[in-house]
Design a protein that fits this description.
The chain has about 210 residues and is α/β, with parallel strands linked by helices. Helix content is about 45%, strand content about 15%. The protein contains seven helices and seven strands, in the order H-H-H-E-H-E-H-E-H-E-E-E-E-H. Strands 1, 2, 3, 4, 5, 6 and 7 form a seven-stranded mixed sheet that branches. The longest helix is centred in the first third of the chain and has 24 residues, at about 30-55. The protein is elongated, with a radius of gyration of 27 Å. The N and C termini lie far apart (about 65 Å). The relative contact order is 0.13.
Length: about 210
């Protein structure tokens, strides 16, 4: 089609000066030019989205049933970035996970957070989780698997920080860590830091565990 337009313009303007030719094109083909520009812009946007649009993440942590507090999330992100040397732009700390399950029914919660959480977990997009103890057992009932903290960090960890399951230390009590002061705590259903088996950034998880301690 573009070739046909070019041939048509060439034949109709062959005896015109440059100024006349430009005026003719802008008068009779302005909408073609506009459509072409829009098409080119959409093509560039599509290429950018596919190639560079998705921000690369080197570490991600999900906070489940904490208060949704983006300022706190940024504080955790920036603090960990400073300690770990990982760019804050490549760290995701997301508390937008308010989830109802079994006997835990939160008001004003929709299913999108539930679906978002388990979709990201299945896709390996969550490296660490700070979750209620009851939600940990709910995930285990769904055949969710977790790494032991010792698989990620071999530093000295106080025994009272461990969360035990089947005789194994599968996590640590988040409220007893260095971030306990900025996290919501519960004595009835304590929050624990755990690491899903499907995580992508093992080294970064070790650094985060060290940072938490």
């Amino acid at each position: 089609m573009i070739k046909e337009w070019a041939e048509d313009i060439r034949s109709k303007t062959k005896n015109m000066s440059k100024e006349q030719r430009a005026e003719y094109v802008m008068t009779y083909y302005w909408y073609h030019i506009l459509l072409g520009a829009l098409f080119l812009g959409l093509a560039v946007l599509c290429i950018y989205h596919v190639s560079w649009g998705k921000k690369k993440t080197d570490f991600s942590v999900a906070l489940v049933n904490q208060d949704v507090n983006f300022a706190r999330d940024e504080e955790i992100r920036d603090g960990f970035a400073q300690e770990s040397g990982i760019s804050s732009r490549r760290i995701s700390v997301d508390s937008d996970y308010l989830i109802s399950y079994k006997d835990v029914q939160l008001s004003g919660v929709n299913e999108s957070s539930y679906e978002k959480f388990f979709f990201n977990w299945a896709a390996g997009e969550i490296d660490a989780m700070i979750i209620p103890e009851s939600f940990y057992h709910y995930c285990r009932e769904l055949d969710g698997e977790f790494l032991e903290p010792a698989d990620l960090y071999d530093g000295i960890i106080e025994d009272e920080l461990f969360y035990m399951d089947d005789g194994k230390a599968v996590g640590i009590y988040a409220g007893k860590t260095g971030l306990g002061s900025v996290l919501k705590v519960s004595s009835d259903d304590p929050f624990i830091l755990v690491f899903p088996k499907e995580l992508k950034h093992k080294e970064a998880c070790g650094k985060f565990l060290e940072y938490m301690l």
